From TrEMBL:
<protein>
    <recommendedName>
        <fullName>sulfate adenylyltransferase</fullName>
        <ecNumber>2.7.7.4</ecNumber>
    </recommendedName>
</protein>
<dbReference type="Pfam" id="PF22594">
    <property type="entry name" value="GTP-eEF1A_C"/>
</dbReference>
<dbReference type="InterPro" id="IPR031157">
    <property type="entry name" value="G_TR_CS"/>
</dbReference>
<dbReference type="InterPro" id="IPR041757">
    <property type="entry name" value="CysN_GTP-bd"/>
</dbReference>
<feature type="domain" description="Tr-type G">
    <location>
        <begin position="23"/>
        <end position="239"/>
    </location>
</feature>
<dbReference type="InterPro" id="IPR009000">
    <property type="entry name" value="Transl_B-barrel_sf"/>
</dbReference>
<dbReference type="InterPro" id="IPR054696">
    <property type="entry name" value="GTP-eEF1A_C"/>
</dbReference>
<dbReference type="Pfam" id="PF00009">
    <property type="entry name" value="GTP_EFTU"/>
</dbReference>
<dbReference type="GO" id="GO:0016779">
    <property type="term" value="F:nucleotidyltransferase activity"/>
</dbReference>
<keyword id="KW-0342">GTP-binding</keyword>
<dbReference type="InterPro" id="IPR011779">
    <property type="entry name" value="SO4_adenylTrfase_lsu"/>
</dbReference>
<dbReference type="InterPro" id="IPR027417">
    <property type="entry name" value="P-loop_NTPase"/>
</dbReference>
<dbReference type="InterPro" id="IPR000795">
    <property type="entry name" value="T_Tr_GTP-bd_dom"/>
</dbReference>
<keyword id="KW-0067">ATP-binding</keyword>
<keyword id="KW-0808">Transferase</keyword>
<dbReference type="InterPro" id="IPR050100">
    <property type="entry name" value="TRAFAC_GTPase_members"/>
</dbReference>
<keyword id="KW-0548">Nucleotidyltransferase</keyword>
Length: 459
């Protein structure tokens, strides 16, 4: 069954805006194999949220007509596939970010590529997501790319995974067939070690269970996809009161001729603050904090923002902290709640996702950037993941589309936590020191580290 859509009922003259001041914000990514309908789903979400301008909708309608979409129908995928090459091939080849809002929430959507060779882009899109929607064609079930995507989201520790079983209209909404696919997905999730995902049967083209629940699936009692996205807690909401405070220092602020908001001139003469983005938890006036690499403790006496001073602030707000003591800090320093900094280490044990065709190999000399700190490193590849069996195999080289395990020796000690417990603070990027190109992304997984870690210095 396919429904038709006309431009008369869906046009909007207002420019879509991202409202982050009065609504909670959810970052989510979409992923799926080629032809699973991912771009169509994203287009449907934008369409039903009335986030499409009238002229864009008219252009898509005209292009759809040229492609053979008749009778008022149009290709929802064209609402998201902005690159000309994508449109001509009918595939998504890069991460595209979309912004839209409903009455209940604002969203940042990362539309990730479907082809196997672009899995690295999927890592980029999903790495900062609160939730990931993975599409599966109800007619074919899980594919190699499904396993790859679920492995990636599992290794990245994405808190909320939604499996959208798409194109249910093409199998006549057959409950038994859909439940068979869902059972296979549950078994695959167990095999990979992924916590039970949300499962929603949908038709992106017809709109079944996308914005609202469908009369065609009376046996499905869960929420529609958009309803679920509107109610999932974001990472910031999940962890603001659970994770310890942490801030990576970007710069140290001193008077430069302008008056900081909320400060009187006398106080401003001696103004000094350390500025950066809060990456975890919250901080309040009077809190005791510790600083790496200074190794000193002090207390917070002021929290300044572009809008004025605050008594408390939480992730992901950017702030300038005034401290009780004149502690030596600079870009790359880490500030955390007293007693919570991980033990600094000179070796990381990590899951690695290469970004280039050349990949990574044992012995590569690289730069490691985590937070606002960049240090030299040497890579040792230990293993790569066999995505057909979910097992690891010994390896010394990781190709551009592999997922593997590596050890990285560092030229300086860094307080990098376990990614699974602290998200962003436990992640890093691998950079080519000659070209400055990003070679790979990594997530620190110390629970799998060798029994004794090297503390050798590097030249």
């Amino acid at each position: 069954m396919t429904t038709t859509t006309t431009t008369e009922t869906t046009t909007t003259e207002a420019t879509p805006t991202l409202d982050t001041t009065t609504k909670t914000l959810l970052r989510f990514a979409t992923a799926g194999s080629v032809d699973d309908g991912k771009s169509t789903l994203v287009g449907r979400l934008l369409h039903d949220a009335k986030a499409i301008l009238a002229d864009q909708l008219a252009a898509v309608t005209a292009t759809s007509r040229e492609r053979g979409f008749l009778g008022g129908e149009f290709d929802f995928a064209l609402l998201t596939d902005g690159l000309r090459a994508e449109r001509e091939q009918g595939i998504t080849i890069d991460v595209a970010y979309r912004y839209f809002a409903t009455d209940r929430r604002s969203f940042i959507l990362a539309d990730c590529p479907g082809h196997v060779q672009y899995t690295r882009n999927m890592v980029t899109g999903a790495s900062t997501a609160d939730a990931v929607v993975v599409l599966i064609d109800a007619r074919t079930g899980a594919t190699e790319q499904t396993r790859r995507h679920l492995t990636v989201v599992s290794r990245l520790g994405i808190r909320h995974v939604i499996i959208a079983v798409n194109k249910i209209d093409l199998i006549d909404y057959d409950q038994a067939a859909i439940e068979t696919v869902e059972n296979d997905i549950k078994a695959l999730a167990d095999e990979i070690g992924l916590e039970t995902p949300h499962l929603i049967p949908i038709s992106a083209l017809a709109g079944d269970n996308v914005a609202t629940t469908s009369d065609s699936t009376p046996w499905y009692t869960g929420p529609a996809l958009l309803e679920l996205l509107e109610t999932l807690p974001s990472a910031d909401e999940d962890t603001a009161d659970l994770e310890a405070f942490r801030l990576d220092v970007q710069t140290v602020l001193r008077p430069q001729g302008g008056l900081a908001p909320g400060l009187d001139p006398e106080e401003f003469r001696d103004y000094r603050a350390v500025a950066g983005q809060i990456t975890a938890g919250r901080v309040s006036l009077g809190d005791e904090i510790e600083i790496h690499p200074a190794g000193l403790k002090t207390t917070v006496t002021g929290i300044d923002t572009a809008s004025g001073p605050l008594e408390t602030a939480s992730a992901p707000l950017s702030v300038a902290l005034r401290l009780a003591d004149d502690v030596d800090t600079a870009r790359g320093s880490v500030i955390a709640a007293a007693g919570t900094l991980p033990t600094p280490r000179r070796e990381l044990r990590a899951e690695v996702f290469p970004f280039t065709a050349e990949g990574l190999r044992t012995g590569d000399r690289v730069l490691i950037k985590t937070g606002t700190t960049t240090v030299k490193g040497i890579v040792t590849i230990e293993a790569k993941r066999n995505l057909e069996t979910s097992e690891t195999e010994p390896a010394e080289v990781l190709a551009g589309n592999d997922i593997g395990l590596a050890r990285v020796k560092l030229s300086a000690e860094l307080p990098v936590p376990d990614f699974r417990d602290h998200g962003t603070a436990g992640a890093f990027v691998v950079i080519d020191p000659q070209t400055g190109n990003t070679l790979a992304a990594g997530i620190h997984t110390p629970e799998a580290a060798p029994s004794s870690e090297s503390t050798e210095d590097q030249s």
